Every structure is written in C-alpha cells, then in structure tokens.
Amino acid sequence: MLVEKPQPKKPAEFPQDPQNNNVRYWLIKSEPLSRIDPKTGKDVKFPLSELQKLEYEQWDGVRNHEAKNNMLNMSKGDILLFYHSNAPVPGIVGEAKVHNEAHPDSTQFNAKSNYYDPKSTKESPRWWCVDVSFVRRFRSKVSLEQLRSNEKLKDMTLVKRGRLSVTPVRKEEYYEVLKMEESKEINDDIDCVIDQKYIKRIE
Prior knowledge:
Oligomer: single chain
Largest sheet: 6 strands, mixed
CATH class: Alpha Beta
C-alpha cells in the first residue's frame, strides 16, 4: 500500500544551492563502534564503511519529530555529511547522499524492533525515513572539537544543538567543512577502514 508522503510540519530551514544542482545540505549521525542494544541484543554500530559496501541503506530508527521533519524536507540527491558519534573523537568522516526520498520507516511496524511504535499503522505511519547512499570518505576526520573552534561554524546546528541526529547545514557551512577537510593530510583516523581511493567523489 502506497501512502502519500506528508507535508513537513516546517519547511526546510536553509535554501537550496543553485550552484550545485539545487541540492540542500544535511548532517546525519551514526555510531561507528560496537554497542549492544540491551533491549534487542543487537549491535547498533553502522560506520561509514558499512554504507560504502551497499547500494543504499534505509536511514531508519529516527524517533525525534524534528529529525523526522528534516528527512521529510530532503530531496533525492541532497548531500549528507556523515558524522560518527559516540566515538572517542566524534566528527565528520565523509559524505553520503539521499538515494530515495522519505517513505514510511518499516521498523515502526516490527514488534521485534527496538523502534516499534504500537500507535503507528501502515495506513497512517508516524515515522518516515530516507534511503542514503555512499559518496566518499574524507581525507581525515573533521572533529567536533575542530568544528566548534571554527568561528565560521558557530551557528551550525550540530554545534548549537548537538543531540539532534539529523540536522540541516547551510551552504556556507558545508563548504567551510570541505575547506577544513582539504587542509588536512590524508589520515585513516575515520574509525573504520575505507580505501583511500574513495576520498575522491564517485559520481
């Protein structure tokens, strides 16, 4: 059964980039290191290297309405900064993109899932998610500490509201992050193993 995607409660906070195919920029968080969920007994880790092996991945399990709204505002092709959280040195390690626009998060209907929502139905789903695909790894991690130390990024949503798992990124912030990355020596400090040939953007 196809359910029509709802209109976001709030429109996208930042405008599209007319100089880059009218994409918007976002940041998504994922845990790169093993952590066993006490409810399911499953490992929740999903480093960038796992995404690199796949055609795309459903970005499910988001149970925050603001983060859900951000995904409802995403368009196919939008660029995602991939952030490793819950690591000794959290930070941005690469880029992904929106492979498919928002659709119902299938985990909300699975009673065995940690993300099951008994109030949600297939006719009226409460939770939506996008599919994401790998674009590239960074030369080196751009750490949260480095982001916080950059005056040009003082208003970045990640810096101001660190707990939100899906956040909008201004065009100027995105390009500033890329400048920070480009200034770094190549270093495999990204919490996972991805060949350095994937530093360059793969179209």
